[in-house]
Amino acid sequence: MYQTIFTGGIKMKKALYINIGGEGHVNPTLGLVNDLVKRGEHITYYSSNHFEEKIKKAGAQFRPVDQKAHRKLAESMGLMASQPQEYLLQFLNAMEMITDSILEEISNETYDYIIYDAQSLPGKWIAHQNKLLSIATWTTFAYSQDPKINMSLTGIDDMEQKQERLTMLKAFLQLEEIAKRKQYLENKYELPLSYNFLLCPGSGDLNIVFTSSYFQRNSSAFKNNYIFVGPSITKNETANDFPMNLLKDTHVIYISMGTIMNNQPDFYQKCFTALKDLKVKVVLSIGKQLKAEQLKNIPDNFIVRNYVPQLDVLRQTDVFISHCGMNSTSESLYFEVPLVMLPIINDQHTIAERVKELGAGAMLNIQQLSAEDIKEAVSEVLRNPIYKNNTKKISQSFRNAGGYSRAANKIFKFTRS
Questions:
Q1: Which residues, in sequence order, are CB contacts of 404 under 8 Å at separation 6+?
Q2: What is the pTM of this model?
């Protein structure tokens, strides 16, 4: 059992944090964790081994989630498109393994409250099983357990098509093996799973949303226990060998396709063709899966690196060509950088649609993309000041939302009321 801590006469509390997601789910939480720890909270943070160093640096006690389950989760991702039923069954099995292993590890420990990633089934289940005050952190847009409400959260266009997809989803979840598995888990953890449980397993008693109420579409539909605090912008480690001086006195185009889907050599070649003759400096982050030597005919106006200090580069950038993950999009808009967007998977299309709706970027189809399309989109966003002006509105909404410090204030007050 942990010892109760007192700081300045205030009883400090012990929190459990469960976050089994990737970079986009963990990174936005680190500033919040660090702020809470500085106030004296003791946080035990369950995540994958990949984030151990970052989580410890934020001041939390790190614990790895069940490694066998985590491997099963990673392996199942390849089945998502080709064998969706098998994917979902393996996914649910991994969620159960992770949940049970954490419940066993904490069986003799006491916590005052739990924080969990809003799209984490283990977090919701453990909160319910241990009757803990719960706080969900939303690192993308907030979603509702009611699929019909979510239709309006992703725009009002194509409502008929969305209704068809919802009908298909319900039919899919009623397939015998899936329905049996769902019922088994509902009985085991004594918590119903909505049709929308993959997107929204269930909100917390308090919900911290890492975007602004302006950027969140239809934010007024959410109750008062949803707190929109804006993106969590923390200082990234600067790559000392990155030639920031080359970005002065010129237009800068920055290209990054994130950490998951960045093995895109054909796309990068199209970028070379599209931008080589423009009077711009182009920074291209290619991630860990490729080497610059594998790319042919890199133009003289390109800087190609496996790692780029993104926040430092964005401060100098005029247009960001992005996959439109929530982290990268939020950082871009925070620094008033309009986007050329190429969404690929998951929530990226929803995010890109919202940026487009607010007039802060142009969207392209990466499946039907030519070098000329890239050149025209970049030229349009550079030329037309409306994109920059609209990013300023979003940026101001982010800065006014309070960030991770406001989130920590809300959690501190909520857990002591």
A1: 31, 32, 34, 35, 229, 232, 234
A2: 0.90
